[in-house]
Amino acid sequence: MVSYKELGLVNTREMFAKAIKGGYAIPAFNFNNMEQLQAIIKAAAETKSPVILQVSKGARAYANPTLLRYMAQGAVAYAKELGWEKPEIVLHLDHGDSFELCKDCIDLGFSSVMIDGSALPYEENIALSKKVADYAHQYDVTVEAELGVLAGVEDEVQAEESHYTRPEEVIDFSKRTGCDSLAISIGTSHGAYKFKPEQCTRDPKTGRLVPPPLAFDVLDAIMEKLPGFPIVLHGSSSVPQEYVDMINQYGGKLPDAVGIPEEQLRKAAKSAVCKINIDSDSRLAFTAAVRKVFAEKPGEFDPRKYCGPARDLMEQLYKHKIINVLGSDGKAC
Ligand SMILES: [Zn+2]
Is 94 annotated in the active site? Predict the structure, then answer.
């Protein structure tokens, strides 16, 4: 058993309380490799933003659970080296799908876990989330649970009430599970193809797709039921057109990729939404930078020469999100 406190990490409790009060949101960036981690820590340290390092089950399988944990420990030391005296860094499991996986992460030094029982029947979701919360709280690890179903890349995205979180369930759910934060579904979606073209309108000037707006009425109703309770938005990449264009220009093929407009995320960040998950945008930045080097310098074969520019572009992206979208800069001095 390794306590996250020994690793210099923090849980989300205080961070979220401050974010709700201050009208900003904490960035939750997924990482799978060293370059992503470097870019996240550099962006957070230089802007003095609290940050959540997210690891999915897939990332653990890709990078090795032990190595990932030591990378997070290294991230704290690196942040200090960059002049950030008291780094506020969370190591969080994204989309834990079983009690065993959550327990394994807690035992390995994670400071926060998500248990995603959103695909289960309501009572089973409660039972599983409660089991994880009861275990996690013994070690002061915070727990995110999910209510409502987010569409995935392959799923049929439907703007129907049944997919959204039902505000009438949130009080009962949060009380009975004891979760510390709640991921909700109000129209965000995972991946770089969040909406089908037929769900969008086209901007007559640019010809680009404009996605349907988020259901702020549902968010308002949830906040009314749970005043001051931390809310989480998944699937909140904006799919920046400049990266999509770069990828397509240099031999890629991402037709009609579409994300959540940043002005909607800005609006959400000012509410009780205090954690916003961003993964696809950094994947796009990484890929765009690598494709550019490959296209312009076909003789290049030193990975540092294409992973380096990818790292720089991701760092720019993370800083932009922190400063211009979430407003978390300067909140962790
Ligand atoms: Zn998610």
Answer: yes
Q: Which of 290, 283, 265 is nearest to 275 (CA)?
A: 265
Q: Which domains does the chain have, with CATH numbers?
A: 13-326 (3.20.20.70)
The C-alpha atoms of residue 236 and residue 326 are separated, in whole angstroms, by 11
pLDDT value at 315 more than 90: yes
The rounded distance, in Å, linking the Cα atoms of 321 and 101 is: 30
Query: What letter does residue 290 receive in the DSSP assignment?
Result: H
The pLDDT, as a whole number, for residue 160 is: 44
CB 274 within 8 A of CB 223: no
Catalytic residue among 94, 116, 180, 281: 94
**Chain segment 103-118, per-residue pLDDT in tens:** 999 999 999 999 999 9
Measured in angstroms, how far is the CA atom of residue 304 from the centroid of ligand 1?
Answer: 30
Please give the structure tokens belonging to residue 118.
Answer: 């959103």
d(C-alpha 136, C-alpha 132), whole Å: 6
| 189 CA distance to ligand 1 middle (Å) | 8
Closest CA to 115 of 178, 175, 157, 65: 178
Residue range 56-80, pLDDT digits in tens: 999 999 999 999 889 999 999 999 9
Longest alpha-carbon distance in the chain: 60
Q: Pull the structure tokens for residue 222.
A: 């949830």
* C-alpha 277 to ligand 1 mean position (Å): 7
Distance from C-alpha of 246 to C-alpha of 257, rounded to nearest angstrom: 13
Sign of CA dihedral 161, 163, 167, 169: positive
201-202 and 209-210 strand pairing: antiparallel
Amino acid occupying residue 129: S
* Residue 175, amino acid: K
> What's the CA-to-centroid distance between 94 and ligand 1, angstroms?
7
| d(CA 212, ligand 1 centre) in Å | 19
Locate 8 and state its tokens.
Answer: 């210099």
How far, in Å, from the CA of 253 to the mean position of ligand 1? 24
Residues facing 55 on adjacent strands:
93
